[in-house]
Specification:
With 166 residues, the chain is α/β, with parallel strands linked by helices. It has 5 helices and 6 strands; from the N terminus they run E-E-H-H-E-E-H-E-H-E-H. It has a 6-stranded mixed β-sheet with strand order 1-6-5-2-4-3, with helices on both faces. The two termini are 15 Å apart.
Length: 166
């Protein structure tokens, strides 16, 4: 089981082997954290992503990190569920995002990984439930990743994640 830490900060500024972006199915870049990742990595990220698209919700794939600062070598793209009230297997899809990110990280030999809150922005997933799913899935998934850093974009998200990790 990896060490899980929670930080408030900028995902693209994390000094880890790989970062996860909460992508849309096209992998061409979207809003929120995905926009920031694409801006920092440069246009080749969208080109690499489009060659792997479409990506189903709950799945994950990796591309090079392009212009992101070392030690980041990979961007892992995952598509979270759009919240539709909880009756459409959203929890299972969200858990799959975290599992698949760890599986992809393992295939790449990643030891340190930074992950944002998946689906809690424009996809509308309730943040408290999303935090619970994120932490419980990361703890239950066998992986060679040694450190998972959950990167919160605001204090409320940080506090929810910190409660789950504690």
């Amino acid at each position: 089981m990896p060490v899980i830490e929670v930080v408030l900060g900028d995902l693209v500024a994390q000094r880890v082997d790989a970062i996860v972006t909460a992508a849309n199915e096209s992998l061409l870049g979207g809003g929120g954290v995905d926009r920031a990742v694409h801006a920092a990595a440069g246009p080749r990220l969208a080109e690499a992503g489009s060659a792997l698209a479409p990506l189903d919700p709950g799945d994950a794939v990796a591309t090079p990190a392009f212009r992101l600062d070392p030690p980041v070598r990979h961007v892992i793209h995952t598509v979270g569920p759009v919240w539709e009230g909880g009756g459409y297997d959203e929890a299972a899809v969200l858990a799959s995002c975290y599992r698949r990110c760890l599986e992809v990280a393992d295939a790449l030999g990643v030891r340190t990984l930074a992950i944002p809150a998946i689906s809690t922005g424009v996809y509308g997933y309730p943040p408290e439930e999303a935090a619970r799913i994120a932490v419980s899935t990361l703890r239950a998934t066998r992986t060679g990743v040694e450190l998972v850093r959950l990167v919160a974009f605001d204090e409320g998200s940080r506090d929810l994640l910190t409660r789950e990790v504690s």
